[in-house]
From TrEMBL:
Belongs to the ABC-2 integral membrane protein family. It is found in: Cell inner membrane; Cell membrane. Residues 43-264 form the ABC transmembrane type-2 domain. GO terms for cellular component: plasma membrane. The lineage of its organism: Bacteria, Pseudomonadati, Acidobacteriota, Terriglobia, Terriglobales. GO terms for biological process: lipopolysaccharide transport. It comes from the Bacteria. One of its GO terms (molecular function) is ABC-type transporter activity. This is Transport permease protein. It is a multi-pass membrane protein. The chain crosses the membrane at residues 42-64, 76-95, 116-144, 150-173, 185-205, 243-261.
Amino acid sequence: MSELVIEAGRTERQYWLDLWRYRELFYFLAWRDLLVRYKQTVVGISWSLIRPLLTMLILSVVFGKLGKMPSGGVPYPLLVFCGMLPWMFFSTSLSECGNSLVQNASLISKIYFPRLVIIVSSVITSFVDFMISAGFLAALMMWYHYRPPVAVVLLPFLVLLAFGVSLGVGLWIAALMVEYRDFRIIVPFLVQFGLYISPVGFQSSVVPARYQLLFSLNPMVGVIDGFRWCLLGTQGPAMWRSLTVALIDVVVLLVTGIWYFRKTERTFADVI
């Protein structure tokens, strides 16, 4: 018969080890979220493709045809979809992380497990959509006979960067949502607003030079510029600066996000 020993402070000391022990819970929550998201939908997981496809068409018409924005010699739909790939991953992760703790209130209030598992599984669920969209981007590049440059080997680094931004902001939003339900309204507004202040439908080079530093404080600017550099070979004059700022942003967001999440985590079961 196994012996259960309850030690004071064990949870704090072995928190990160517990994340590995509860790894099966990662798989279960991610799989469940995927099933729930597309349950009773007509086209199911195809929404992962339809949504960015429609957005790409609209942004291509608005910025490419009507706005006459430069594309740097790249077909405009390809330029837009390459920017949408990390943006959709980030925006979906933000929405999923924000609601994740509240939606799992019954689970949180009944048993112990590191609550960080819920946040990471939400980002992983959004990553599945990202991979489906990445497959469509590959097909789009073949359609336009566009061969990626050698820099494509650095794409995994950019994916990790996008993952870090999504997780860092997601930790903050999820913890704040437990305490302040106003964030149910704020998060969709932030996502919508962020689409227009990120270079999704246009290149960063169209932003005047005097605003470039301020513009690059948005971590998704460096991530999107980096994706376009790896996949399309486009490189704006401020790309390396925005990429460096994005890297610093990720470190700050992850460190402060984990700190605030861990600080408030023990009260989740009471507040939620």
